[in-house]
Amino acid sequence: MNLRALHAFSAVISEGSVTGAAKAMNLSQPAVSRLISVLEAELKLKLFRREGRSLSLTDHGQEFAREAGRILAGVRELPAIAEEIRNRRSKIFRVVSMPRTSLSVVAPAIARFSEAHPDVKVSLDVRSRRELESWIAGREYDMSFGNVPISVATATSVPLARAALEVLMPVGHPLAAKGEVTLQDLTSYVLIQNHPGQMLRRQTDVLFDTQGIRIEHEILATTSGMAQQLVAEGAGLTILDRLSTFATDDRVVTSRPLLPQTWVKFGIIRHRDDEPNPLVDLLTEFLRNRIRECAQLCAASGSIVSIERGAEVPNSMP
């Protein structure tokens, strides 16, 4: 990809016009326009809607802008990384979490890990599953925690837990009076869901399609964290695994088991060629301990199971 064209795209967005981008990049306006055209041709996407002399992002452009921002942020970090290598500073232990369990599992585990090992410099990122292949291929991190199995041939995974899907709702909601909630129960309410194509959404779509149930009223949220906040604000209900609900405020929201019972797995993900790393083993134990805590807190329902002896799992979707 033409990195200069990517910078031009970002500059047009940040400056609000081709003229502003040209000044910021010290280029002519036609040069910036050509770079944008090159990028659109390379991506086979129309990024901007041209209305006279003004530009506005298309839907594809808005989605690409989010990804481009992350790429350019990584590029901007390269000088600092190079300086770190030159100065032979202590190696950073780089960890990435998928969003769903970043607050409920990974953050508590990292906090305890850092308290026990204050000499280790930890970098924690939260990135979506759809970026998995790129950061695994680039070996950007020492380890990841998220949904397993995975469909990336260059990665290996070790399951640490499985959790049942539940329905998250505001405290006092009519469905809170039920011991379990069926898919049919949800048709009378607004359901907050991830966008089509996201992993959790694919799982719930299969459930609804299998029973021939259609949800008429929904709100789309990019992350499960946003879905949880919308539930707390009274906007509707959402389906979420029990392990992830530990990040919610139980004074405001509550959850009930979903029928039919459906399980998801979580575990460690690494590049298959990574060398053994004692820090990975140490953090894995802190993650296991956090999972055990969560499992104990919901022992009555059995909705979280700690997988004590994780084995490598095939890289295919469950």
UniProtKB/TrEMBL annotation:
GO terms for biological process: positive regulation of gene expression. GO terms for molecular function: DNA-binding transcription factor activity; sequence-specific DNA binding. InterPro entries: LysR_HTH_N, LysR_subst-bd, WH-like_DNA-bd_sf, WH_DNA-bd_sf. Keywords: DNA-binding, Transcription, Transcription regulation. Residues 1-58 form the HTH lysR-type domain. Pfam families: HTH_1 (PF00126), LysR_substrate (PF03466). The keyword Transcription applies. Belongs to the LysR transcriptional regulatory family. This is LysR family transcriptional regulator. The lineage of its organism: Bacteria, Pseudomonadati, Pseudomonadota, Alphaproteobacteria, Rhodobacterales.
